[in-house]
Design a protein that fits this description.
Elements: E1 4-8, E2 13-16, E3 19-22, E4 28-32, E5 39-41, H1 54-67, H2 72-89, H3 93-107, H4 111-119, H5 122-131
Antiparallel strand pairs: 1-4, 2-3, 2-5
Helix pairs in contact: 1-2, 1-4, 2-3, 3-4
Length: 134
Amino acid sequence: MSGLVLKLGPHERVLINGAVIENGDKRSRLAVVTPNANILRLRDAIHPQEVNTPVRRVCYIAQLVLSGDADAGETRLQLLRGIEQLSQVLTDHDSRTQLAVASRAVLEDQHYQVLKALRSLLPREERLFAAHPQ
């Protein structure tokens, strides 16, 4: 992730290559210049007890790679299978586009992009579950 600029609010936390960094009292900007750094805003993190839907499960796998808790190579097949399963349910054009972005990102070991593309599907998944309660 070369050239990434993080804009952090007061006391916001971010995980960079396994280290939790907390901002001070004021808003700030950090430029991340190291290519392929693993970065996760903790406010965006999915907690284990929240992994209760298909999209969240696949997001969580990508998040584990970003946090350093899972190996990218070992999760590649699991991510691709999860994305394929999602593509069988989320058949609209926008969802398919995001799933294609996520698939390419998995193959390129760009797990932040995987997570970003998959997170965009969360509102759609929520609407589907609301329309069809079990």
